[in-house]
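If your schedule permits, I should be very grateful for your opinion on a structural question. What I wish to show you is a protein chain and, alongside it, a tokenised description of its three-dimensional fold. Would you kindly read the sequence against the tokens and tell me how you understand this chain to fold? Here, with my thanks, is the record as I have it:

===
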Amino acid sequence: MTVYFAEWNADYEKYMVGILKYEYDVVLFNKLMKHFRDINFILERKKLPRQWFIKFHQFMKLRTLKTDDILLCSGFAVSGFIDLVKNLQCHRILVLRDTIETLNKSMKNQKKWLCQDEDYIDKITPHFDKIYSFDFEDCRKYSFTYLNQFLPFTYSEMQKLRCEPNHFGNSMKICFFIGEYRDDRVRIINNIAPILHKNGYKTDFNLIDYSSNQIAFSMNKSEHYKLGNKISYFDNIERVKNSDIILEIGQIGQTGVTLRAIEAILFNKKLITTNSSIKKYDFYSPEQIFILDYQNIANIGEFLASEFSPVPLEILYEYSADVMLNTIRDAFI
């Protein structure tokens, strides 16, 4: 049984697959959308025949797949090539690392891979044998199977990373945040930054604009954050390592833990998060994790002064790339 990762093209995803190759039978399919996505969309929207076009690309790109192999699609990318894989004779698995609400908005308004009258649940999910999600509420609502959020590191790599020098307690204390520009994030940053400054912390807050809406930026400009460009995952990791506290401002309504939270725990950083569901996780500790809302923001000073014990690495094993892969493989053995 071979596991094929279909269009897992983020830098950290490609890194993860490359590492997994040393121990498992895995393959990265990273050219499925080439010469397919845009032409397929044009044919579909002009109501022109597509079956010959789809079959040709299936033969050219997917002919090595066997019936007992696993085709592992990510929730974000699959909208661009669903017609290519939806009828394949293999185990078709979908892994969702975003909420359905987020995927619908992104696929319709940014990527344009869904029409405004289409829905992700109706168009994408019926074509998979099993669907995994990190979000508790989406699992309940859509009968998905829950899967822990997972780092792009194997457990052996996590052990090595834990042994690296920890920068917590630097003379210049730093709180780090990076994320897409949203008005709610601006409000939270403007409220929390003065409190952090008062307690001796430097803030490294970065908002990224994927729509290049400079008008909105100029109206909400603040001295508490920088307007920047997207950085690579491993640049992000270096900044996490060199910070003392990580700020996480999640998607509204999100009930699953994010990569950012697991990174903070792995590297022994304190975490300030808006995600109240983090209390459900086995790594949660109020000494290391502060759940932020408008009622308790004034209590951050006490949290900053507290000490915490690192989460045992054995607990974080459940959030490794090994466990993700084995969980999915074991469902078909």
Remarks:
- The longest strand covers residues 173-180.
- The radius of gyration is 21 Å.
- The chain has a mean pLDDT of 91.
